[in-house]
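Newbie here. two chains, one complex. Structure please?
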Amino acid sequence: MDSDRRRDSRSWDWDSPQCRAQLDEIFFRQHDYIQAGSPEHKEFWAFFDRFQRFKTKKDMSGSGGARRKEDKEEGKDRGKTGKVDLGLPKEYDARYRINVSVCTRDIEERLGKSEHRSRQRSSGPGTQEISDCRLALLHFLDFSQRQSFGKLAKLRQEQKNLPIFQYRDRIVELVRSHPVVVVAGDTGCGKSTQVPQYLLSAGFNHIACTQPRRIACISLAKRVSFESLNQYGSKVGYQIRFETTRTPATKLLFLTEGLLLRQIQQDGTLSQYQVVIVDEVHERHLHCDFLLGVLRSLVAERPDLRLILMSATINIKLFSDYFSSAPVLQVPGRLFPIQVIYQPIPPEEQPSRSEKLDPRPYLRILQGIDQRYPPEERGDLLLFLSGVAEISTIQEACQIYATHTRRWIVLPLHSTLSSGPVFDIAPPGVRKCIISTNIAETSVTIDGVRFVVDSGKVKEMSFDPKAKMQRLQEFWISRASSEQRKGRAGRTGPGVCYRLYAESDYDAFAPYPVPEIHRVALDSLILQMKSMCLGDPLSFVFIDPPPAASIQTAVTYLKEQGALDNAGELTSIGRLLAQLPVDVVIGKMLVLGSLFNLVEPVLTVSAALSVQSPFLRSSQHNPDCATARQPLHSNQGDPFTLLSTFNAWVEVKGERGGGSRKWCRRRGLEEQRLYEMVNLRRQFKDLLRSHGLLESEHSAPSDGDRGQRRERLTERRKLHQLKRDHEQQEGSRRKVLRLAEGQDEELSSGSDTEEKGRGKKDKEGSEQNMDIQDVKFKLRHNVSKLQEAVSVSQDLSSRQQALLKLLLCRGLYPQLALPDEHNSTRKDSEQVFHTKNKQGVVIHPTSVFASDPEVLHVPEDDSREMGPDRQDSSRHQLLAFVTLLETNKPYLSNCVRVPALQALLLVANSVDSNADCTRLVVDGWLELELREPEEALKVLSTALTLRAEWERLLLAQLGQSTVGGPAGQGVSRRVMEKLSDGLVRFVLYTEVSYSLRRLTAFQTQNLYIGPQSESELSHSKAPDLNPLFPGAEVKPHPIKGGLRVTSFFTYNCLADSKDLYSECLRTFWSCPNCDLYMPLTPLERMQHEASCRPAGEQQQLEEGGKAGSSSVSSLTRVYHCDVCNEDLTLTPTEILKHKRQHMYSTK
Amino acid sequence: MEQSTSETPQKTFTCQLCGLVSPYSYYGQKPPNTRAIVLLEECFVTKDPFTPDKEKFLVLGSTCSLCSLCVCVGSDCSLFYTKRFCMKCVNKHLDQFPHQVQAELAKKKQSSRAAIS
């Protein structure tokens, strides 16, 4: 034995993997506390090396002698004192400091537990090695314990240091005794992270905490789960639009205001929560104001519910009063003193309206800081500007100064940029200069800011109900915002705030910002209120009610859109739209798309139009980007460009995975937007499915063969690991910026030099710096499935394209714009358009039509000048657009071009005609004059028929969807294809020459003949016509005059009819479908056409009718003939014939 | 016993010296699922919250072997030297501790004083 050991130790090598493996067999077996191969195991051996080095060093410094000396002393001491003997060992050993012991194989063997043969042991490490390793292990365990406990203690210390900590018990007590409590505290007091935890540990369960921003939900959930020692559990979670970490074990959930509202929509009493915390109520977002209103009535209904409002110390009384004087707990913030310096911009440097910002005042401040403060005194600068354009102007100027002085890193910050670099640290002697919009006022908090520059300006969106236009305007900020901005300088130490306005300006500022509910269109809000059955929106008790006119505008708009009926109640389409978290127009597209075989492209387009444009403005003028983008462009319109961009991206994703990042950069695309699109698209698909508007995906058992499935599973596991690794790494450390960072980040153009510059950065952690977005994407989506779905919409035939356009147009209606008649003689940049409510709007420079306006002009070979302001053509076009936004000019964005006559007849809410239908006025502002009465009648009549059928199928589809039956059953495929075929033919092949123009104000005043007396109507004898039109009651229009034929078409109500008698003028006409040949008035003819189908089709229709709605299947009506005085059951054609019979006989 | 303690994690440990509060899941010398590990004193133990590994434990504190004060393992509150001693008792019987310990404590006192001034 002894010789064995000696031999072993002689050949023992601590660095040899074999030797270590032998020790692993003793200490780190599969059932041990630390297992070989685990991360802790790796850490142990690293620790072991350090430990050994430490020991050798200590041995060499001769601690042995000291120990002996001390032993003696100790003995002496003990003799002297007559106190309690602690019974401590005589000789010091660090081992005695460790309160852990571990049972490993050698001990088990000694105790006889193990059946290992001693032979095995003799070939392994000797006792000395084992005991060395054991000692190291004990120290390692002790070290890990200390490390973790240190973290815990530090955490608790930080919590204790927060200003809110001393109010802990008071808060819990208030919440216990009051249904509503207001907690007011300024940034840094810790309310958002601590209050939910106080409630949790006081025993409250099921706590929801709303945030105005998604990003805050994620970061708070992360922080709070860490602080409540549940970092790896799911006690604390978040839920945002596309992501949730919520499990049944979740007790505290951070979610967006909008999401909580949706949950109330599902469950009116919100029974899943015991406590609701609404954070940042002072920000007064639309959703938040509404949420407070809803919760206010809920509190009365549910006395057990606890509601906590958290706010900055702004306007607290307003919130308290709204909830019948709820108690307020005010917590002081933690701010260092801040010096305020007013530096109004001198008049010669004031920018005029159209000019760029003058950077001089800003540069002076940078210079001043450089002169006054030594570079070793750290502290960054935060500069508040109103918008993105202003940021790039000032950034450019500051960058030049920074490059020159090498003392600044200039970084922009606004909502469309990833905020990564602004959180990183500047190298010594260099300051960050962060140029930001008001996003850094509350939403994004950057540590280490010492200087704040406040321009005093903000850009805010407002809604002009008269022009139905959004407006992005620059305003002075409020005093509250001004203070908020100032406060950003004093978070980590005393600071300085430079205000680029006079103190008198400050005094004149409004006290608070205008709440969003007073600024924006309320369409979605009203729709949601209706679906929540909250009664009349005008009588709803808002914390600060919006103007009644604004509510009225929204109600009218929703009626126009068909979401509300005339009584103001939700229609079936409206009910569905209320469920969709998108604009009404986008929602409509989705519903319409589900009817036809165009779901896939419509899903993509709807998603694309709901997120910000992926096309970076900054790359617009980069020729390389423009060339690379070219193949993606479609001159049909921006939605088509977005569609092809998305499709191409998905294809790249399938081929190259992470390579898509580069692909996007080269084309000047913000890839984040595409990720948002793909997520949104998926959500839309799920929504349509859950409403029965889309067949659920076949749960095909053969999802590839077994091998493929296994492959996918392994792949997923790998991706999950990558995601976990990334998450662990993420929180670890802030990166130190390089001096050139700002320039790099500024533009992500696709040029090669750029590529190199970035390549360096990517390489730093080549493997670790993988594309986390790509990993998340692959985890969330099945790329091959997505590709399949996308390939459907890849090469749309011209027919599909026409149909898709029509759907988009119907969705977007009434958002239509008319090209100005003189556009063809204007420069590209001076093309002008008109909407019903706003004249002289222009196309946004990012639109395809801005660079290619000719496609909107009426082709010369097709047009005929009919007079000074009449141009006849069959090629007039309109633009359907998503947004009308005024910045420095009113801009249309996301436009698609549509053939005017066809689109208007198929989608417009109001079409009025003269007697022979050659003059049509649409929605009271567009006038179309057709040359040939014959053609006019035919076109109108076809449109009426198609629309009736479209409406019928849509209702059938929606009707059956509410029952929840499988989709597609309500409307047979054949019927649907028939309709789409009809629509496409109508859109593509209607060759009718007509003029198109806007009515003047004078013309609109005298547009209609107005109500007529009975006698005047005698010649068109309405009662006779009534039963002729299936499903519609033809009667005089009470305001316009003429006859209302359908809900949207009023016949012969236009005042300046050329010919008063043409409406009763009969001309011979033969029906192409039946053998009818007789003289008919225009109206009679349309009515006949509406009901008469070709023989074959009639049969089909009846078959289809059996399966679908029965009311339309039979065309026969009960007709009471006054002459015969009999009730007859006849088809409209038969009725017509029957009447003729009497007519001829009386003659 | 082990199971019942781990199922009710809402018992809280409070250090009677520094006031540190944290829920604990086990009290004793043999924390659950720790295999071969034995503690040399009766401890308040919780799952280590800073590692994803569910089996790793964290000792929060224990009782002073002299005065039975409940103290955390933080170096400001207690010291383990074959047994747990709260800082009060350590200071009272400082002379009985080996030189190394005394030196270490003196050094710490100095540095904390330096930090304050």
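Moderator note: The mean pLDDT of chain A is 82. Chain A touches chain B through 41 residues (CB under 8 Å). Thread marked as resolved.
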